[in-house]
Amino acid sequence: MEPLIYQILIPFATAFLGGFCGWFFKRKRIEKENQGLDDANKRQEITNIDAAVDTWQKVVDSLEVQIGKLLKQRQEDSRQISELSNEVCDLRRQVILLQSQLVSQEEYQAKIERYERLLAKHGIAY
After folding, report:
1. CA 50 to CA 39: how far, in whole Å?
2. For residue range 11-64, what is the model confidence (pLDDT) as tens digits?
3. In whole angstroms, what is the distance from residue 86 CA to residue 97 CA?
4. Is the alpha carbon torsion for 47, 52, 58, 64 positive or negative?
């Protein structure tokens, strides 16, 4: 029975001690590697944040340019609308004036026709 225990126990103990020694001596190295990876991740995060800030700044600059263009276009449109409104008002005044002149001419034409009929009725040639 002893040889069976030795056959099982010694390889088991050897494997356990080998694994334990490997872990014990490698843990500091692994911890340093992990810390190095953490530092690399932090640097990568900072780089990513810098890239995001640069992209955001480009977007903001682009929007500022577009807003400036739109404001200039709005001012031009407002000026044009004002000019067109003044032109419409002038044209309305002209239409009203022309309508009143037309009414006056129609009244004069009606008077002329009435006088012509009177003259024709009385046999007067003109």
Report:
1. 16
2. 887 888 888 887 788 878 888 887 877 777 788 888 888 899 999 999 999 999
3. 17
4. negative
Task: Give the Cα separation of 116 and 123 in Å (integer).
Answer: 10
Based on the number of CB atoms within 10 Å of its own CB, is 22 exposed (0-12), middle (13-18) or buried (19 or more)?
exposed
pLDDT digit string, tens, across residues 89-102: 999 999 999 999 99
